[in-house]
What we know:
Blueprint (H helix, E strand, L loop, with lengths): L14 H20 L11 E5 L6 H4 L5 E5 H6 L4 H12 L3 H7 L8 H10 L2
Antiparallel strand pairs: 1-2
Amino acid sequence: MPYxxxxxKKKLKTISQLKKEADRKMSLxxxxxxxxxxxxxxxxxxxxxxxxxxxxxxxxxxxxNNNCQCLVCNVFKKGNMDEYARFxxxxxxxxxxxxxxxxxxxxxxxxxDFELIISNYK
Length: 122
């Protein structure tokens, strides 16, 4: 039937693309939430800094582990970890560092996990 156009299948995003989008949404949300570097107070060149490195997927999107940092603290000072730890303790209490460290475990996210993160941080 020539008058019927072929229906185009919607191409699904790859897991890598979903992960990148989830990271971007989370980063925008964190920077809007915090408004400045939690370790030095700067309002310039803001990024999403992680206390526990983001390769630990169980903590990659944990709001307690994601906080706004400036480029200097996050990159050049390698997270400015002493100040970052003090900030976390002030905000969440003395047990937070131990709590986050206990959550460091191998985790694999599936498509639906990334889609949920993306929808939560729109």
